[in-house]
Amino acid sequence: MTHRQYLMIPGPTPVPARAALAEAAPMINHRGPEFGALLGEVTGALKRVFRTTHQVLIFPAAGTGAMEAAAANLVAPGERVLVAVAGEFGARFAEIMRVMGADVRVLEFPWGTPVDPAEVNRALEADRSIRILVVTHNETSTGVTMDLPALRRSIPGDDVLFVVDAISSVGAIDVHPDEWGIDVLVGASQKGLMAPPGLALVALSEEAWEKVGRTRCQSVYWSFVRAREFLERPSPQTPYTPAVSLLYALRESLRLL
Ligand SMILES: *Cc1c(COP(=O)(O)O)cnc(C)c1O
Fold first, then answer.
1. Residues 6+ apart with CB under 8 A from 53
2. Which residues in 29-183 belong to E strands, given as ranges?
C-alpha cells in the first residue's frame, strides 16, 4: 500500500475516501436491475454536473478515448475539420482527427495564449467547407482557459459542429454546453469529477446526434448510437461489460459534488 500523496498534477485528482471505498463493492450483474439503478443515478447526476438536458454517455477509457469516440462517430472520410491548437491537448485532438480520416486544418496559437475567436472566425469564413471546429476548453498543458461563448459566436452559419475537450474543466470550471451551443462535450472521470481514472464521458447536442445518424461510425466499441440505445432501455445498460467498480466510485464523487 503506498502512502497518500498530495498530488500536484491536473489529474488524477485526489479521490475522496467515500469514492475510493465504493470501489470495493461486490460485482453485480450488469444486465440486472441493480446495475440499471446505478447507471441511471450516475447519468442523471452527470447531466446536472455537465449542465445539459442531453444524455451523457460513459465509456470505459481514459479521456483520450472520449476524444477518439467523438472523431469515430462524427467524421466522414475526408471531412474538413478545424482544430484550434494552443498546447499539448489541442495537438492531440488534431492527431486523433487526422488518424480518423479527417482533412484537418490546424490553427496554431502560441502556447500560453488563448485561442483567438477573431482568428477562428477568419479561418472558418475563408473555408466554408469546414464542418467541425475543435477547441480545448482548458488547455491543461498551459493552464489557459478559452472563451467558449465567444468562440461559438465566431462560427459563421449553422452547419459547423462545435466540439469541445472539457476533460480538465467539467466539474471544476463553469461550462454550459446547452446554453453556449456546444455540440460535443468530452470529459473524463479523474479531474474535476474527483473519481479514479478510467471513465470517458461524452454529451451531444441534437445537431450532433443528427450528424452521428448521418455518419457511418468507424468503430463498434465507441458507437454513440449503440451506447444511447442501451442507456435508454427501461433498465439502463451498456453495450458491453461496464467498469462497474469505477461507476460505484463515480456515483459517490457525484453525490459529493
Ligand atoms: C488530461 C487531459 C486529456 C487526456 O486525458 P487522459 O485521461 O489522460 O486520456 C485530454 N485533454 C485535456 C484538456 C486534459 O486535461
1. 47, 178
2. 56-60, 80-85, 103-108, 130-136, 138-139, 144-145, 161-165
Does the beta carbon of 63 lie inside 6 Å of ligand 1? yes
Extract the C-alpha cell encoding 42. 450516475
62 lines ligand 1 (CB under 6 A): yes
Distant-in-sequence contacts of 33-37, Cβ < 8 A, 24+ apart: 33/235, 35/235, 35/236, 35/237, 35/242, 35/244, 36/233, 36/234, 36/235, 36/236, 36/237
Owner of C-alpha cell 446547452 = 178
Q: What percent of the chain has pLDDT over 70?
A: 100
CA of 96 to the centre of ligand 1 (A): 13
Q: What is the mean pLDDT of the chain?
A: 97
Considering only CA atoms, which of 227, 220, 229, 176 is closest in space to residue 200?
Answer: 227
H/E segment holding residue 98: helix 88-99
How far does the chain reach from its first CA to its final CA, in angstroms? 27
Q: Which residue in the block uniquely carries the three cell numbers 481514472?
A: 197
C-alpha cell read off for 51: 449542465
> Where residue 1 falls among pLDDT bands split at 50, 70, 90?
low
Q: Report which residue type is found at 252.
A: E
141-185: pLDDT as tens digits: 999 999 999 999 999 989 999 999 999 999 999 999 999 999 999
Q: Give me ligand 1 centre to Cα 134, in Å.
A: 14
Rounded Cα distance between 69 and 79, Å, is 16
Q: What is residue 7's predicted lDDT score, i.e. its pLDDT? A: 84
